[in-house]
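queue> pop job 88
queue> type: inverse folding (structure -> sequence)
queue> payload:
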């Protein structure tokens, strides 16, 4: 069976790198764990790092976090459905919200559970995912700030996740201004401006982050070391915390082109033939993973001697050329992963999960 590894030593390096950067800029931050899909083994490694706040978009994952360490502050990071409010209040200390009626329901549920629930109001800043429109924010706040068992601890925003709108100094200054307006008008303190996710980190690293932005929600850069402005690895960070390992289950020398009448495959693709390849062959390997587990566009071969030819639901076909490294059946091919590839693999029940480089 194919398996994915988490290198805890490299994860710690990335965590300590970000921890120092946030600390020097007087910014608090939480780790987004949704990539782990609630995997107990990997969450334990995260908790060993000393993480004090964990964010997730699945209530069951937050429940797993609380079962491992109740003291960790848990944050639910998407609008909650009405039927899940009870469980959300039970397992999340904080939630991101942008609907008046939902916040009223949360208030009622928190009162029933004898809890005080913290809320970050999400503000629309251009990407058109979740968020209250800026011109409606003061009125929105006026209807919720005195609700029982609710504490408004921040204003937040989300960028880049839907339409690719990038964060900018101007957008974040606007968020800071909203905070000042509300604090002055209602004589209430809002502790956090949660500026965003990994995509905003480059503004901090280049000293372009406006004063007042003091909270981040970080996943991708922690796990992949990536500067999402430039799509390159941040110096001092690792991009290979995760690796996929897949076994060769067939090895044959075969023609480069198929033989017979061509129609669409199950994915709806029709192969375009390069007639210059007629009569040529290469060594082809099949590995024990398929589209059911991951889209191959998110796989990056560790060894430059092979590339991916295609895939079906349960098999990926690899072109080994002349097989210079003499791979054989039973050998393992290794791949680095892009974020969405790791997410798919971690969500697959058919992929084993292993930790290497265990922390003490």
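queue> result:
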């Amino acid at each position: 069976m194919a398996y994915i590894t988490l290198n805890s030593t490299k994860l710690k390096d990335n965590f300590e790198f970000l921890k120092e950067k946030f600390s020097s800029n007087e910014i608090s931050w939480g780790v987004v764990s949704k990539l782990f899909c609630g995997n107990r083994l990997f969450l334990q490694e995260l908790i060993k790092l000393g993480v004090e706040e964990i964010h997730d978009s699945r209530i069951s994952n937050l429940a797993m976090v609380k079962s491992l360490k109740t003291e960790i502050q848990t944050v639910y990071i998407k609008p909650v459905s009405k039927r899940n409010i009870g469980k959300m209040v039970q397992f999340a200390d904080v939630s991101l919200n942008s609907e008046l009626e939902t916040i009223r329901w949360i208030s009622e549920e928190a009162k029933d559970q004898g809890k005080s629930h913290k809320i970050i109001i999400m503000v629309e800043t251009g990407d058109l995912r979740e968020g209250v429109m800026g011109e409606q924010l003061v009125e929105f706040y006026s209807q919720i700030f005195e609700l029982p068992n609710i504490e408004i601890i921040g204003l937040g925003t989300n960028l880049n996740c839907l339409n690719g709108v990038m964060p900018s100094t101007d957008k974040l200054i606007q968020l800071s201004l909203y905070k000042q307006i509300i604090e002055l008008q209602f004589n209430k303190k809002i502790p956090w401006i949660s500026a965003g996710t990994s995509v905003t980190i480059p503004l901090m690293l280049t000293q372009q982050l406006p004063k007042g932005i003091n909270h981040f929600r970080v996943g991708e850069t922690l796990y992949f070391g990536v500067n999402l402005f430039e799509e390159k690895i941040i110096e001092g960070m690792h991009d290979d915390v995760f690796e996929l390992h897949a076994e060769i289950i067939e090895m044959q020398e075969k023609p480069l082109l198929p033989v017979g009448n061509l129609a669409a495959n199950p994915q709806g693709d029709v192969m375009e033939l390069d007639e210059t390849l007629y009569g040529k062959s290469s060594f082809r390997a099949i590995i024990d993973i398929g589209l059911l587990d991951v889209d191959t566009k998110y796989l990056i071969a560790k060894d430059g001697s092979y590339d991916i030819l295609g895939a079906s639901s349960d098999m990926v076909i690899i072109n080994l050329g002349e097989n210079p490294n003499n791979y054989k059946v039973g050998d393992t091919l290794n791949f680095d992963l892009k974020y969405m590839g790791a997410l798919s693999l971690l969500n697959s029940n058919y992929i084993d999960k292993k930790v290497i480089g265990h922390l003490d």
